[in-house]
Structures are given as C-alpha cells and as structure tokens.
C-alpha cells in the first residue's frame, strides 16, 4: 500500500528504501483506521473491490517530517460538509486510478466519460524537448456516474514513448515538416489551429474558427515560457479571436474580384478565444452559441476570462472569470441536458490547472446558459497536463458502441 500525506501524495513501499522523504507528513494510522471502518466505507459508497487503506511501514519508520499530527479533523469536516473523502490507489509510471469525492450539487443525470489528451512527459534520461507540442501523450478519463466523478490517467505507451523509454533518451525527432515535403501556398496572412462549426445557407458556406494574426514560429509555447507563465501575455499577435468567413458556393462570372457578397463576416476581438466547442447536435447546421477559453490575454487585464460564450448571431458574450490570473482553463466541452429544448440547455465540463505549483488542479462544471459555476472537484494529484482536446462520451452512447 501507499502512505498518505496531507496533500494526497504518496510514496511507494520499497523494502530496500532508506533516507529522508522530502515531504510533509501526517498521522496516517489514524486516518487509515477511520476510513477503513466498514460502516463508513458503505456510507462513502466504496465498492468491496477497493482495498483498505494501508500505511507504508518503512516510510513511517524512516524520518518522515512530523509537521502535522493528524489531518483527521479535516476529513471529518469534509464529511460533515457533504463532500465525500477522496480515496485513491497509485502505481509507478503515473498510472493513476482515483475515486474522487463529490458535492451534492453535481448533476445526477451526468453519466459518461470525459476523455482528454495532452502532452505530459518532456524528458527521458538527460534529454528534454524544448517545445510543449513535443511532449508524450497523457490521456485522462473523468468518469461520471450517480453524482460521482472517478479519475484515471496513464501515459500512452506508443512506439515513440517505448523507444524513448528503452533508450533513456529522445529517440524520435521533434515536431517539424521535412524540407522535402514542404509546399508553399500564398494567401492573405493569418493562422488558425481550431475550428468551431460550419454550415451552408443561401448559397454561402459559413465557417467559424479561431484566427491568429501572427503566430511567429510558436516560440511563445517553448517550455521555458510555459513554465514561467510568460507565454500567456508576451505576444499580442499570437492571441486568437473568433472569426467567421463566408464563402460563396455559387458565383456568376460577372462579379468583380474583391466584392463582398455577404455582409455577415465578423471578427470578434472583444475577448481572446481558443479551443472552441458548441452543442454538437447542431454540427453542420445554423447555430448560435460557441464556447471557448481564454489562454492568452493582455497583461493589463485585471479580471481574466476563463470560459467565454459567444452568440454568433448578435455578437454578445458571456464570461466565467478565473479565480486568479494563474489559472489555465482547458477546452470547455458542452454536454446537453437530457430534457433540454434550447440550444444552450446543458452544462460545460472544463479542467482547470494553475501555473502556481502550490495549487492543485480542479475540474469545474458550469451552467451552459449563464456560465455560473455548479460545482468543482479538487483533483488529488499535484499536476495535470495543460492538454489539448477532450470529448464527452455519454454512457448510453458508449454502451451502444460497445
């Protein structure tokens, strides 16, 4: 079993281990006894298949720093407040399985898996990549059922990962396109990574996407800038904004070049907007609402947006603000309410990290109409990757696919 410390960390039991453990400690014996009580386990909804808490004896006997006599009162207060206590198991290699406590306000109808990916490992042996995009994949699963959330994560053991692990060095090249495969296309200058919805109406194709005026060579996403937090505000031209381009699908031959055939183009520079998501029931159809996150922002902003909701018909925006500028919101995934009728009847699922290493990551659920917070989970891990994209697979849909 693993030891328990006040922050939900652990140390593996190793018979040949010796020396100091550089972390705070608590009285894990009292917590283990308290949480292993059969009646309390039933009350917490812990299945019999989950083993009892076990305390790592060698870790207890070999110089833990006794800064905390016990965190048992904190556990009791959490139970009394209606928050279930987090329990988890962990093995080497960051393969983690957690059973995380829930708050009573969590929508009980939410049932399924929030699947998220992103780079999570950047160093093998003495070799380290320079860029965020070059990290090894660290998929995560947030499973919702009966008002609870279960979290698991594991490195993707790809051919590239295994080769680097075996050689204890970077055995694959960093991201780049070989010169032999490069082709130049000329167009008015802009850059885009991520698209929202697209649909056809009245002989026009409407495409909504995040436009970047000048990304440079993505030097803003070098790990040194990611780690010191400067990436978020160092280059104003790298900030993306929601943009719509309208492409005519039927043009007569006598139209002059450069004439706008539709007066519906917009370029919203009100709020930085990235990782767009929308109600996917409207994929390929006219729609109103698109949700995004503000990753890059102006350094002078006092209140930094976390999630932004755009009405593409009116241009109006709604904002859920960050707790502080150090927070980093991931991709906001829309999940429709099972009994909803309006396009924005549902919730937003969004993981939230922090550039401050002392603050744990959280998982937040927002009301999709108002962007008000419904509830949040504090994850029992010190860090999660900033990540890229995620999907929500409804339990019923997953059963059908299986």
UniProtKB/TrEMBL annotation:
It holds the Pfam family RPE65. Its cofactor is Fe(2+). Gene3D superfamilies: alpha/beta hydrolase (3.40.50.1820). Fe cation binds at residues 194, 389. The keyword Oxidoreductase applies. Keywords: Iron, Metal-binding, Oxidoreductase. InterPro entries: AB_hydrolase_fold, Carotenoid_Oase, Peptidase_S10. SUPFAM superfamilies: alpha/beta-Hydrolases. Signal peptide: none annotated. One of its GO terms (biological process) is retinal metabolic process. Binds 1 Fe(2+) ion per subunit. GO terms for molecular function: beta-carotene 15,15'-dioxygenase activity; carotenoid dioxygenase activity; metal ion binding; serine-type carboxypeptidase activity. Transmembrane segments: none annotated. Belongs to the carotenoid oxygenase family. Belongs to the peptidase S10 family. This is Uncharacterized protein.
